[in-house]
Fold this protein.
Amino acid sequence: MSQTFSSSTGRNRKAPLAVASLGELGERTLKKVRLRLLPIVLVLYFLAYLDRNNVGFAKTSMSANIGLSATAFGLGAGLFFVGYVLLEIPSNAGMYRFGARKWIARILIPWGILAAAMSLVTNETGFYVVRTLLGAAEAGFFPAVLFYFTLWFPAAQRASILGFFILAQPVANAIGAPLSGLILNMEGVAGLHGWQWLYIIEGVPAIILGLLTPLLLTDRPEKAKWLAPDERNWLVTTMAADLDARASKDKHPFWAGLKDRRALVYALLNFGMVCGIYGLGLWLPTIVAGLGNFSSTELGLIVFIPYGIAACFVIWWSRRADRTGRRAWHASVSLITAAVGLLGAGLLLPVNAYLSLALLTIAATGIYTAIAPLLSMPSAVFAGAAAAAGLGLVNALGNIGGFVSPYIVGLLDDATGNNQVGLLFLAACLAITGVAAYLYARNRPEGDTRLDEDATVGDTAAHAESHQEKVTS
């Protein structure tokens, strides 16, 4: 019997699915799965984020060497997402068809090669071409991992799991900042500029891990020989029930995922969030550099501060979203907090550098804590082939923001001669997205699991019981 709650609207509310007991077997099984899979995907996403954002640290010296204006840099940085978006959905179809081990390896190796090839860029055109190809090579990685999680973790657990995964973003920026600063000091070593060494050193690990990934990942629970038989049986049964309860009944579920209106809405919400993520990530080193005369090492250490503090809150906030079931509320609060931080930083940038940095830290915390609760909502809506398509669409259209925001911030920087207007633009994007996310998802089961009807739980339990009978018979 599920616990219910009453509300002023007279709607029956069941207890959040996330707090339902998994039992000793379930807890033990998912702990093993987390320990086995999460460290691998965390490292892979760490490298992905490092390779797409290190251009922000290379900007100053690279621009001086090859002659890039702020607008040209913003355009080139954003072109990564043109290639990324164009191949996102086809790439996720490949992931569904060939499995995680082969497909993620297929993504990693060319992305590592092209990340290192950024060191060969000598002019504006080359910058545009390689950034576009790098985006095309990396296309599909993020939604592939989101889809991969739908095969291994029940929907009620995914905000917490995504929190661990998303942690790679601020950690990559936090560690990448001082690391990039140190590498930039290799100016002149072997006749190369520091920014060339930056691309080479941070690109090669993706190639190595691409070769190792087929040995490290397991495609589906059925093939998990590292689980005990009872653990494997529990996971297969649980995930089959989860799939049955959520899977599209359409004869062509992959296309059904693309046509689903919810995928489009969450793609637009993701677009607004991504504008803030990459607008801040690609321009933060430049903004901080404008606060004083810093060496490359000092710049890296200062940029570490916002990301390091943000990383401390990601897991806690994601778990809270799962525990309370109020994912829409958590995503909205984070996005509006980020908007307030950017707005304050934009207004105080010419007044007080320390207060401005403190507000940028608040903005980074808001941005990174928003990702898991926001993306856990579409990942709870879709299952099976529809999940591969729907999550691919959410990420593809959302990442157009990765092109739009750096380019617009660059245009505003060139037009006004300062970074303030760009920060205000990013704040507006995040504020609008925060309000829209709450208004759309607050009364939807994926946005507030307490609103799920008892029938959903009953159906899931029935599917699980039926599947268990088939397994044991």
